[in-house]
């Protein structure tokens, strides 16, 4: 199963927060049961960025269970909360801040192989669905249906990569990256840009009402560090799919990096957020 560099998670967090579809969060807050604490499971939680974003928007008293295969990332949750202005009890299990009181538990679990936990009021995940298979999404929807949990699944890529200014190789690189995103990431053949619609179909089969909303990254020259990281990753992915095109892709990357160094260049990275509510 894929794990992620903490530096990459830290770099992308502001872009994630700016992109998320607030309309779905408002619908979710209205639909959740009026009880405290509200129980929430966060899948592939990493260092807790989803908690830091979503908890203040839900408000009140909450109990979070952060699940990830990487125990080292989970061990850093308390430090990241403190760095974002939360006050923590000595054991790091109770956090207060931003109008929220949250009890936090962490669990190292291989989500690719183990049962998907869903015994909560809400199951949430960010930037996960495009890494998994259709069969895994079916397991997730079935687990949520069995417990009656709502699901908020955010920042799944939808295949959109649109650059400004346009370069000759953009379309080819986009197609190769989308092909690479469908390689096995540890969960079986990944859905990549097809993941949001697969999630919609899976939850609807289990009787859920499903809403979607776009949540694109719109990155400009002020996001140069994140853009540099992304472009290097895209070039590597495209070259892995089409090694015979490596030289041309390297030239494309050099052109994009030159633009960024000159304070020029923007890119839109398409994502889709999915909200699934039980009861249709």
TrEMBL record:
Name by which UniProt lists this protein: Methyltransferase domain-containing protein
Organism from which the protein derives: Limimonas halophila
Domain of life assignment: Bacteria
Taxonomic lineage: Bacteria, Pseudomonadati, Pseudomonadota, Alphaproteobacteria, Rhodospirillales
SUPFAM superfamilies with a match to the protein in the record: S-adenosyl-L-methionine-dependent methyltransferases (SSF53335)
């Amino acid at each position: 199963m894929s794990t992620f560099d903490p530096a990459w998670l830290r770099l992308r967090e502001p872009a994630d927060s700016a992109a998320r579809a607030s309309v779905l969060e408002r619908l979710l807050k209205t639909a959740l049961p009026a009880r405290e604490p509200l129980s929430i499971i966060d899948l592939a939680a990493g260092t807790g960025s989803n908690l830091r974003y979503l908890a203040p928007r839900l408000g009140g008293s909450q109990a979070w269970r952060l699940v990830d295969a990487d125990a080292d990332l989970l061990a850093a949750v308390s430090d990241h909360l403190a760095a974002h202005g939360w006050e923590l009890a000595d054991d790091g299990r109770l956090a207060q801040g931003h109008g929220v009181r949250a009890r936090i538990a962490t669990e190292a679990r291989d989500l690719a192989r183990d049962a998907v936990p869903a015994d909560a009021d809400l199951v949430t995940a960010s930037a996960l669905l495009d890494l998994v298979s259709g069969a895994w999404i079916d397991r997730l929807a079935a687990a949520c249906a069995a417990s009656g949990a709502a699901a908020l699944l955010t920042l799944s890529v939808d295949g959109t990569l649109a650059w400004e200014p346009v370069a000759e190789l953009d379309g080819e690189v986009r197609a190769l990256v989308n092909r690479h995103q469908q390689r096995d990431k540890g969960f079986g053949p990944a859905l990549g840009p097809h993941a949001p619609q697969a999630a919609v179909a899976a939850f609807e089969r289990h009787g859920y009402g499903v809403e979607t909303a776009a949540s694109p990254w719109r990155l400009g020259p002020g996001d140069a560090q994140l853009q540099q990281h992304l472009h290097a990753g895209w070039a590597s992915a495209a070259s892995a799919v089409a090694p015979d095109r490596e030289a041309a892709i390297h030239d494309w990357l050099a052109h994009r990096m030159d633009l960024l160094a000159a304070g020029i260049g923007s890119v839109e990275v398409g994502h889709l957020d999915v909200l699934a509510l039980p009861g249709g």
